[in-house]
Design goal:
Two copies of one chain form a homodimer.
Chain A: H1 11-26, H2 33-40, H3 44-50, H4 54-77, H5 83-100, H6 102-109, H7 116-121, H8 125-143, H9 153-173, H10 181-196
Helix pairs in contact in A: 1-2, 1-4, 1-6, 2-3, 4-5, 4-8, 5-8, 5-9, 5-10, 6-9, 8-9, 9-10
Chain lengths: 201, 201
């Protein structure tokens, strides 16, 4: 990276980008703030102008990643004609990102969970947005009569996130031959859709 | 606890039981081996006669818990007449344990993930047994024609675990009014079964 071409205003973004690389390769606990500073080409103290602590850096990184995830999911849904179509697009888009943003996937599925602060004390507004997007599709499908009613969309959304997240974790931690994550998106997409859809019989 | 009534041969079990309490209340990272020793009423050094490190203690604790989970799931399946029946029993038994073994649930869904050793370097034979049990039910349902074929049972088992695990995490981390986990077991059980079952149409 040519640090000379990056102006001061981009420092925060550069630090986050460096943290992503460092946390994904060294692991959150082993990584030091100094490693992130070295990767970003800034002094250690500069990091603390933007972030209070290593935990704060991790959480900010997650927020930025989740904002991108939510934004790409929202874009993927544009023009969808039904709840079924939306859910299929949601699955494909989410698991597609898992594959194309491997470092971010490692952060979300592994490193983030090592932060006690994140797991226990963080309200997590971006994850709430993600769940709201997913629950909205289910709600729409239930309202239109395409999906079976009676189960709260919020619980289904959380369960479906768990399913997607576990597939992402499996994919990212498999050494050697990985499953085709796009094929897996079709498989679990079918499982969930068949489970949600009202049967004509 | 009356330590005097516990003989030396039970020390390992007593240390694990104490670790469960201490890790669940203080969190894995904040907890010290000395805290576990105090809770168990043994000298700090005694812990190291049985366990190499705090990570090793956590992993041994998880192994013991998962062995109990697998054993109770196996028992719950005895006498089941179909793959559908087995899967319903599996869901009910698993989420029932989540509710009755709250500390163990906290260890499995939160604390365990804070161990980089566990997440990255541990082969996890007990979890493999759990997945094998679940994949076996799906395989049986596919073979008998009750469940749709074409999706590998191992991928479905992993996805279904993710779903159950996320519900457990949601339940254990909700402050205040929790959802009824047994009702949630019925909801997601229905979702998964409808998703797996072959449609007559």
């Amino acid at each position: 990276m040519n640090h000379h071409s990056v102006r001061g205003g981009d420092k925060r973004a550069r630090i986050l980008e460096s943290a992503l690389k460092v946390f994904a390769s060294k692991g959150f606990y082993a990584a030091k703030v100094a490693d992130v500073a070295a990767e970003a080409g800034v002094a250690d103290g500069t990091i603390y102008l933007y972030f209070k602590s290593k935990d704060d850096l991790l959480i900010s990184l997650f927020e930025e990643q989740m904002q991108q995830v939510n934004s790409q999911l929202t874009t993927a849904l544009v023009g969808a004609i039904s709840a079924t179509d939306k859910l299929q697009r949601f699955f494909k888009a989410y698991l597609g990102m898992v594959e194309t943003h491997r470092h971010a996937t490692e952060i979300i599925t592994i490193e983030l969970r090592q932060s006690a602060k994140f797991m226990k004390d963080y309200a997590n507004p971006r994850f709430a947005e993600f769940l709201k997007l997913l629950a909205g599709i289910i709600d729409e499908g239930q309202a239109s009569g395409t999906f079976v009613s009676g189960t709260p969309p919020t619980v289904l959304a959380r369960a479906i996130f768990g399913l997607l997240d576990e597939l992402a974790l499996m994919w990212v931690t498999t050494k050697g031959d990985k499953i085709d994550i796009r094929k897996a998106a079709d498989w679990v997409g079918r499982l969930v859709l068949e489970g949600l859809e009202r049967r004509s019989a």
